[in-house]
Amino acid sequence: TLKPKKDPFMPRLFSEEELLNLFIFMSIAICGPFMQGLLYIQLLMWSFVSTCEWLEYILEHNPDFPILCALTPVIDSVKESWISIIKVKNHIEVGSMLISCVGWMGGLNAPLLAVLFSQFVRIKAVSSHYTRNSFTQLNKVFEDTLPENFYLAFINPIANFVISMDNSAKKAQEKLDDGE
After folding, report:
1. Average pLDDT, stretch 90-102?
2. pLDDT above 60 (res 88)
3. Sequence-separated (6 or more) residues with CB below 8 Å from residue 101
4. How does pLDDT run across 114-169, given as a tens digit for each residue?
5. pLDDT tens digits, residue range 4-13?
6. Within 10 Å of residue 146's Cβ, how many Cβ atoms?
7. 110 — alpha (psi -120 to 50), left (phi > 0) or beta?
């Protein structure tokens, strides 16, 4: 048969990452061309990785599948570097959130996008290690480049808030694991 018995795409379709990507689809309507470009890049990276994963699964079960055999080098390349691709995607998400927070003043997006995108990234920061890593790296860049007083007054409270969200999520998971 040409179709694998178990499709890895369907269980992932309703996972958290995929549902959060629906937000990006809807956000495209309330942002300007620059922000749309950033959102499209995020979606393209996500779809590229997901599609390569699905194609790899098909090739494992049907190695002689027409045309897909020619894509094996691309699929193997993505398989080797998918963590780097996901990290870049999350860096773009965090950067897009920061741009949207100040971009509405310059007409890059609607003010509503800044609020919604901040909530989107906040949810991702709680659930995704890669997003937390992006925040940590961005915080390090700010700490190293901004004047100390500015960093302590504006950036440090936001960084502490993100860290507290992460700690709250860990405590809640520990309670669930302990059966409380």
Report:
1. 89
2. yes
3. 114, 117, 118
4. 888 888 888 888 778 888 888 888 888 988 998 989 888 888 887 777 667 666 65
5. 445 555 555 5
6. 14
7. beta
pLDDT beyond 90 at 40: yes
* C-alpha span between 37 and 52 (Å, rounded): 22
Nearest CA among 69, 24, 71 for reference residue 44: 24
Rounded distance, CA 79 to CA 98, Å?
Answer: 30
Output the CA torsion sign for 18, 107, 87, 74: positive
Distance, in Å, from the CA atom of 96 to the CA atom of 34, rounded to the nearest integer, reads: 10
